[in-house]
Each structure stands twice: as structure tokens, then as C-alpha cells.
Design brief:
The chain is mostly beta strands. Helix content is 8%, strand content 60%.
């Protein structure tokens, strides 16, 4: 008697459609690819600390995750940015068709080795342009300094 019930449950679970939005990894404007504005602001005053165009190179890892690399200049030093984007409710598909993804990055200074890290809880669309907003932080002498980071498609 238990076997037919388990079979029914298995069929129900395997026949449910994938609820994630399908996004074409190669062409969707939400994917961090190409030139984006990289704006760093002071958390307390909202004053812009740094603003530059950054070119992101994405690599598809799985249907719900991709990694990115870029170069960013902060405080006069070039930083190698590396990290990833978790699709959560998105399903990235290549080359056919792939929620608000979470992004995380580490920036490492090429001369000093100083590091910054960021976590971005999701992305939004403002005036037709995709935007990631989160915090960028670094720890020096036991003190963590936070800045707001906004990455907007050019």
C-alpha cells in the first residue's frame, strides 16, 4: 500500500514545472557583461567617492550561477575584481534562453594586496536600466570601513 503512495508523490514532484525565470545568458541585459558604471559612495554622507566605467567578463558556471572578473581603480591602485552572481529565481541557459540575483565580489590590490569585499542582495530596474546596489567594505587595523556600491549598466 505504501509503494503506490510513494510513487504518486514522486510523480507529483518530478512533474512540477521549474518556477525560475529563464534568462538567455549570452544576451540578457541583467547579466554583468560589458561596460557598467561602478559608483562608490560614502555611507553616511552619500557623497560619491569614486565613479568609473568597469568592463565585466562573465563565465557561466551552472544554470543558476556565473562568475565575473574586471579591473577597478580605487585610491589610485588597480584592483582585480573577481566574484560571482547567484541567480536564486533565475535559470541561466546558454545559448537558448535564464530573480533578482545576488552578487558577491572580492577586489584585490595588484600592488598592496589590500582587499575589498562586497555583497549585493539583488538587482533592480530603474528607468529601463539594470542596477545592482550593495555594500563595499575593507578592514584596516581592525576597523571595517563601509561604502555603498552601485553598479548600473551603461
Amino acid at each position: 500500500m505504501k509503494l503506490p503512495l510513494l510513487t504518486l508523490v514522486a510523480v507529483l514532484f518530478t512533474s512540477c514545472p521549474d518556477p525560475r525565470e529563464t534568462v538567455n545568458f549570452d544576451t540578457d541585459p541583467r547579466v554583468l557583461r560589458g561596460s557598467w558604471n561602478f559608483v562608490l559612495s560614502d555611507v553616511l554622507s552619500n557623497a560619491v567617492v569614486s565613479s568609473q566605467a568597469v568592463t565585466f567578463t562573465p563565465t557561466l558556471v551552472s544554470e543558476d550561477r556565473y562568475t565575473v572578473t574586471a579591473s577597478v581603480t580605487l585610491e589610485g591602485e588597480v584592483y582585480a575584481l573577481s566574484g560571482g552572481v547567484n541567480g536564486r529565481d533565475l535559470r541561466f541557459v546558454r545559448p537558448q534562453f535564464t530573480p533578482a540575483p545576488q552578487a558577491f565580489f572580492t577586489l584585490t590590490g595588484q600592488n598592496t594586496g589590500k582587499t575589498y569585499s562586497t555583497w549585493i542582495p539583488g538587482q533592480t530596474q530603474v528607468n529601463g536600466r539594470w542596477r545592482f546596489i550593495g555594500d563595499l567594505s575593507t578592514t584596516e587595523n581592525g576597523i571595517t570601513n563601509y561604502h555603498e556600491l552601485e553598479i548600473t549598466r551603461n
